[in-house]
Amino acid sequence: MSNTTERSKNKTDKKKKRLIFRFVILILLFSALLFAVISNVTEDEVKVDIGDVPPNFELTHVNGDGEDDKITLSELEGKGVMLNFWATYCKPCEEEMPYMESLYPEYKEKGVEIVAVSVDLTRFVVDNFIEKYQLTFPVVHDNKNQVMDAYGIGPLPTTFFINPDGTIEERVIGPLTLDRLEGYLKQIQPIE
Amino acid sequence: MFMKTITCNACGHINKEGTMICGSCGKPLDSISGEDKNTLLNMRYDGTAVRSKTRNRSIIDKIWNFFSSIKIGVTLIVLALISSAVGTILPQEMYIPQNVDAFTHYRDEYGLFGQIYYQLGFHNLYSSWWYMILIALIGISIFIVSIDRGVPLYKALTNQNPKRHTGFLKRQKLYSESETYDEDEKEQLLFNLKKHRYNIFEKDGHLLAEKGRFARWGPYVNHLGLIIFLLGTLFRFVPFMYVDDFVWVREGETVVIPSTSQEYYVENKKFIIENYGEDEAEVFAEAIQNQEGPIAKHFETQAVIYKDQSTNIVGEEPDLNQIKEGSIIVNKPLKFDGFSLYQSSYQTNEFKSMSFKLHETSDENEDAIAEFKIDLDNPENNFTFDNGYRIELDQFYPDYYLDEGQPKSQSNYPRNPGFVFFVYPPNEEEPEVSFAAIGKNIDPTNDNDYKIGLTDFEVRNASGLSLKKDYTLPILGLGAFIFMIGVIQGMYWQHRRIWFHPTSKGIIVAGHTNKNWFGFKNEVDKIFTGTSLQAIKDLEEDSKEDRSQS
Questions:
Q1: Which residues cross the membrane (chain A) (predicted)?
Q2: Structural domain range at position B308
Q3: Number of domains in chain B
C-alpha cells in the first residue's frame, strides 16, 4: 500500500515538473514569436518618434546675421520648436513655406521657434529660395545629410513638433495646411 | 489524482495510458481490449504513449497538445505553402513602380483580383505579420512535436527488454518459428550477428540484436537544425546582428554611412567603369550587339572609410580618422568593423562643373569676351572680369525641368543643370537675362546683345554602395548544417532489430526495421546461414497473398 502511495506521489511530482517545463517552453516560444512580430511591425518605423527626445544637432544658420552663425537645437529648450525638413526641389515643401512664414511672427512672440532644415546640396539654391520667399525664420543647411540620417528622414517634407520640455509632440510626413500647421503650433506653445 | 494506467497482464509492468506495447515485455496492450490479434503491430514510437495524448488537464497542457498534433503541424505547413505560392501570383510591392500608390496600382493593373490581393496583404506577403506568425507557429509546432515524441522514443529505445512477449513477436512483419535450437546454433548466430555489426543484448537466453539505432534520431536532429535556422532569421531584427542599407557617394565626396549612428564616413576617391567594347572576344559579339547601350564589364569604387573620433553633436564638423582604404568591386566588398560595403549600383557622367563663354550674339565666330567656370557643388554668384563685364548667376537648377513654364529642379543632383544668368556689360546697370542649359540657350527678350555658350564640362560618377552587416549567417549556416546531418542520419541508416526468443519447443525469431525491409530480410537470411533456423517470412506479404488467393 505504501508502495502505491509513494508511486502516486511520485507521479504528481512528475506532473508538476512537466507542467512547469511545458509552461517555460511555451513562454519562451511565444515570446520569440512576439518579438518577431513586434520587430517586424516596428521595423519601418522612424528612428525618432513621438515622445522621444530628438538627437541634438548644430548646423549653419543660412539666413543668420553672421556668415558662420550656428543653430544648436539644445539651446532652444524651453521653447516649442517646429523642425521642418525640406529641400528646394521638393514641391510640397515649397507650398507650405508661405504658411510657416505667415504664422512665424505671431508664434515667435508666443515662444515657438521654427527651424527649417534644408537638405539641398548647394547653399546657392537655399539662399535663392530664402530670398524668393523672404523667409525670416531660421533656415539651417544640412549639406552632409548628417541630421537627416540621425532623424531617419524618408520623404520630404517631414516635420517634427517639439515640446518646450524637449520631447517630440508630433511627427508629420507630407505637407501641412495652414489650419493644421497652426493647430500643431498651438500644441507646442509654452504655457505661461 | 491517480493517473490512468494500464497494467500488463503478462509481466505486471504499469504502463501509461495510451501505451500500445508494454514498455517492459513488449506484449501488445491492444489485445487486452480484445482487438484483432493477427494484424501487424504499429511500431511507431515503439508503442510508447505519445506524451500529449495522455492527459489534457490544464490550459497549458491544452496549448501544448494543440501544437504537438502532427495534423496541426501539417495544416500549418500546408497553409504556409499555399500562401507563399499565392504571394508569387502578382509582383510584390517592392517590385511595382515606386512613384504610384500601391492600392491604385494593384486595382488598375489587375482589376478586382488585384484589389482583393492588396487588401488581404498579399502585396507584401513575406514580411506581413500574419505570414510571420504562420512561420513562427510552424517553428513552435516542430519544437513541441519533437519533445513530445522524441523523449518517450528515446526512453523506450534505451530501456529495451531483450525478452519480449510472444504476442509482440508474432505480430512483427518479419517472423520465423523453428523446432530446433541449440548452443552451437546460438554461437553461429552470435558470430553472424557480430559480423554484420549488430549489438547484442541478452536476458535469460533471450537475444536482442540491434544496429543503427541512431538513425531514429535523424528527424529530431533535423528539427533541431530547423529551429536554429528559424532563430537565426529572428536575430535579423536585432540591429546589432543585422544591418542592410544603401548610400550614394560621388567621386570626391565624403558622406556619412547610414545606419551607423553617424560613426562612419565613406569617401569615393575614384569610380572606374569599363564597358565591353568592339575588341572583345568573338563569343561576346552577338550578345553585345543584341544589347542596346554599353554593357558594364567591370566597375569599382576606390574608397576610404573614416571613423568619426569626435563626440560632437550631429552636424558639427566630424573628426575623421582613416581606418581603411581599398577597392570595392562587385562581390569584393570593403570590410570594416563588422560592416561590409558592396558595389551595388552606379550613375555615370553626372556633371561636376561647367565652363561657359560670353560672346556677342551677332558674332559669327563666337569669340569669347569672357570665360568662366561654375563648380556645381558650390556655385559662385558673381563673376567680374577685367574688361568691365560682370556676370551674375541668378538661378541654378541642378536637375531642371519645366513646371508650367517655370524652370524648377526635380532633384538634388546636377544631372541636367540649368542656369539663369544676368549679364552686365561695362557701365550698364540693367542686366541682360539669359537661360542656359544643355543644348539650350534661351533669350527671353529675344533682343540680347550677348549670348552665353557652354564650352566645356567636367563629369564625375556616382557610386551606389550597399551596406551589410550580418552576424546571423553563422547561425543560419549552423542550422542548415545540423538540418543536413539529420537528413543524412535518417536517410542512409536504418534501425534494425532482431529478437530471438527460445521456447520449450525451439525458437521464435522476429525482426523489425524502420525502412528498407528488403535489405533487412536479405541480411537476416545471411545471419541464418549455418543454422537450421527456418527462413524468415514477411507476414505482411503472406497475408496479402492469402487475401488474393481467397
A1: 20-38
A2: 238-348+464-470
A3: 3
